[in-house]
Write a structure and sequence with these properties.
Bound molecules: copper (II) ion
Order of helices and strands: HEHEEHH
Radius of gyration: 24 Å
Number of strands: 3
Helix content: 25-40%
Structural class: alpha+beta
Strand content: 5-15%
CATH class of one domain: Alpha Beta
CATH topology of one domain: Alpha-Beta Plaits
């Protein structure tokens, strides 16, 4: 019985040592890989997000797209800066994924079904130079004569 226990103990030590070895070799090989050929790239994608809800939706999704390492969004220009691993994704794929969220991405138009599900305020097309600012969602930005989200900025409901 004692022998068996020792045997199991020895097996456990052997196993954990082997596991540690495997860990070591995998980390060292991957770090040497990134040192030689960097696959990390950056792309700026023009979207048509209009408000803080759009921004929040992007933030909840884009950083989790496959291969995305870093993500930044400028609400004023609706531009996204995505740092990605070119081995896992590419700008065309990223644009497709943004389209599936319901937004235009450069020349890729928003998926109409996804766009239809967005809050009304987010479906408003931002005019060039317009400030984003429909954070207060009354679903009629375009309903009272003001053109788009820009017109909602000044008055508080
Ligand atoms: Cu929005």
């Amino acid at each position: 019985m004692k022998k068996l226990a020792i045997l199991i103990f020895a097996a456990l030590i052997g196993f954990s040592a082997a596991a540690q070895d495997a860990k070591k070799t995998s980390t060292s090989s991957s770090s040497s890989k990134t040192a030689t050929t960097s696959t990390i790239q950056k792309v700026v994608i023009q979207t048509n997000g209009v408000c803080s809800k759009c921004e929040a939706l992007f933030k909840e999704n884009v950083p989790f797209f496959k291969g995305v390492k870093d993500y930044a969004y400028d609400p004023k220009t609706s531009k996204m800066t995505i740092t990605y691993d070119s081995k896992k994704t590419n700008p065309d794929l990223l644009r497709q994924q943004i389209s599936k969220l319901g937004y235009n991405a450069d020349n890729v138009k928003a998926d109409p079904a996804a766009r239809a599900k967005l809050p009304a305020c987010c479906q408003v097309d931002k005019k060039p130079g317009q400030e984003a600012g429909c954070g207060h969602n009354h679903s009629g930005c375009s309903g009272h004569g003001n053109s788009g989200c820009g017109g909602c900025n000044g008055h508080k409901h």
